[in-house]
Amino acid sequence: MTEKEIFDKVVGIVGPHAKNAxxxxxxxxxxxxxxxxxxxxxxxxxxxxxxxxxxxxxxxxQDAEKVNTVGDAxxxxxEKL
Amino acid sequence: xxxxEILSLRIQKFLGLLVLLPLAGIVIFIxxxxxxxxxxxxxEIRREYHRLCGNKVPLLLCANHLTMIDSMIIxxxxxxxFWYACHYNRFAWNLPAVENFGSSVLRRVTTYLSKCILIDxxxxxxxxxxxxRHVHWLLNKNETCMIFPEGTRSRSGKIEVExxxxxxxxxxxxxxxxxxxxxxxRGHNQPGFSEVPPKGARFNIQLSLLEPHSNQxxxxxxxxxxxxxxxxxKKMEERxxxxxxxxx
Lengths: 81, 248
Known about the structure:
Chain A is mostly helical. Chain A has helices spanning 3-14, 21-25, 41-55, 61-65, 70-80. The termini of chain A are close together. Chain B has a six-stranded mixed sheet with strand order 1-6-5-2-4-3, sandwiched between helices.
């Protein structure tokens, strides 16, 4: 799976939980999930679980804590695949 | 937990007990005389709560959230002041949002004296860890704690399962054997969320005891346990509305 494909899939997972539509429209690797997209911490849990299910990976609590931006999620998934 | 944290909770509880009678008197006067609120099934609710308090297990109250004074109404409905004075551990610790109740000195003092631990919803991870540590310690000391699993007042006026805050599941997960008393509170003339219920409101309260259990671990267990509580609250809401429809 290419980085672009992973990125698109991650944006698809994060999108429904984002409260800031403007930031979502201009989302990039540096976009922070909590602050920029306005996702709350419980929805971030949903996002991590959805990433595990859709990519067939396991994300430890330590790894999950490192996911601040969309790019962090992409890098983490790429490492795990 | 650090000795200083235990000491601070013990001092808070002691000071709260000292002012319970006058503070509760003022609150009940406002609720009953000024606002003319009534809880229609208050005797059964109190009897049931007193009975459940006889179980010597950690008890977490989880309620739906429509107004800023839900916790006051729930405290008033669950027991009388003198019973609380004799069983002060059963006057529930509450976790209100700092942006709502920390805005003035008066509010900070009254919440402090009412066994509240202010929570900053935009706080750092360490802040939440500290809150969970306190709640875990309190529950294991046979203190009742109260939380609103929706995290905020429901903007639609109905339970929104998909907006649940998973801190509830974290608390249950951290406290083996924890019983959850789901509380559904609604004024008959309360269409949606508001600051306070309308004057003269008549409340209906339902209680349902759960012992949530999950075969999952970590964040999946957190979510699973929270959703069990939320689905129970949703069922209680459906019962409320089908009963209300039957009365029309």
